[in-house]
Amino acid sequence: MKILFVCKNSPYAESSGVEVKIANLLRCLAGIAEVTCIFLEEASTGPRHGCETILHKAGVLSRVNKQVTRYTGHLQEVLIAPKSQKRRLSEAIGRMTPDLIWLEFGYVCHLIPFLHQFGIPVYYGSHNSQWKLDYEIWRANASPIAWLKMAPFIALYWLQERFFMRLADLFFCISTSDMEYYGRFIPRDKLRLLPFFFDCRHLHGVQPYATDHPYICLVGSLNSYQNFAAAIYALEEIWPQIQSSLRDLRLYIIGALPQENSREYRLLMQKKRNDPTVVLTGRVDTVIPYVKGALVNIVPLTLGSGVRTKIIESAACLVPVVSTTIGAEGLPFENGKSIILADEPGEFAEQVIGLVKNAKRRRDLSECAYEAYRRELSFEAGTGAMGKLFAKERAE
User: Fold this and answer.
1) Could you give the strand order of the β-sheet that contains 278-282, starting from the edge strand earlier in sequence?
2) pLDDT at residue 67 above 50?
3) Which residues pair with 59 in a beta bridge?
């Protein structure tokens, strides 16, 4: 089988959840098919973790050509594919004659009517309930300028979801809750459940981050509003309670910081207040050493949708997780057995303190999480599930 994979995000810099998800999806697809990729924006860094062995690029299409048109250009691209993109896609299809075209994430469904002209099935893979997440972020954002700038996108994203996503021949959802959401406006016979599969084979040689003090970690780019809100929630409500009980412990917040001098950046710096127990790493090439070195990974998300890469990575690294219920949405981990869920800040802090003080409890929790990961979310599980899925679709 030959698959043409079209996506806006390249999987080169595996420091963000979206890129990690794409990279691992490609690994699984490459295990059962010949995959050729087209990315609708330029990659900024070189391939990592074996991606170069599966990415046979038919071309890299620039998303926006001029800095001055970044905002208006992005508005336009949500609904209209530039002629240059259509030309390059046509050339790639003519060159490789794929059996199917896989569109992945990022509001690219407006390409489906164009791609259907070639008589090839078009599949679409989602990462979350996209408009629902963006709408929640839009409503929660306290910055009037950001709120106004994002408003046109919210309207256009709604159009994408209601009018274009339903045109895919198959639509892959990341969780059962997402299937329920998309089932409101996409025909049920087109929906399929496709979990986030993660290849941990490259993790074994990665050494834990070395430090002279114990720490817990919070992972996520703070440029994403949901991660920023989680960090502020942790600093305001959870960390003071943990730190008062465990004074030698540190909190590492791992991920890109908000743009300097932005409202979010100033608020973050204010909450940190030069506190030496809080470490802001900024953007890192890979979060894995930091996750491996942590006693606990905390996921205090209060809004969002989709599956958290950070929780799957922690399970693969044998690091226990304390999360809010929404943070662990869609994952096969059982509360109290392979993950701990807590939605109130006092309970959240208490659970983290208990884990830090109890090495056996941390080990038992992480081992159960690893077994659930290996059984349902590993690379081997992913290639097997995709092989069965494509075999069934061909048979039908």
Assistant:
1) 278-282, 250-254, 215-219, 297-299, 321-323, 340-341
2) no
3) 38
Residue 60 pLDDT greater than 70, yes or no: no
Question: pTM of the predicted model, to two decimals?
Answer: 0.84
The string of DSSP letters for 90-106 reads HHHHHHH--SEEEEESS
Q: Is there a single domain that holds both residue 169 and residue 252? A: no
Q: What is the dihedral of CA 183, 185, 187, 192, to 10 degrees?
A: -40
- Together in a domain, 149 and 245: no
Whether 278 and 251 have beta carbons less than 8 Å apart is answered as yes
Q: Label residues 133-157 b or e (16+ Cβ within 10 Å = b).
A: bbbbbbeebeeeebeeebeebeebb
Query: Do residue 264 and residue 170 come from a single domain?
Result: no
Q: Is residue 251 predicted with pLDDT exceeding 60?
A: yes
Which residue range is the domain that position 302 belongs to? 202-376
Structure tokens at 305: 């949708």
Q: In what order do the strands lie in the sheet with 100-104?
A: 56-60, 34-39, 2-7, 100-104, 122-125, 170-173, 191-193
Amino acid type, 159? L
Alpha-carbon gap, residue 338 to 387, rounded angstroms: 28
Give the chain's domain count.
2
Q: How many CB atoms lie within 10 A of CB 86?
A: 15
What is residue 68's DSSP assignment?
A: G
The tokens for 55 are 């990415």
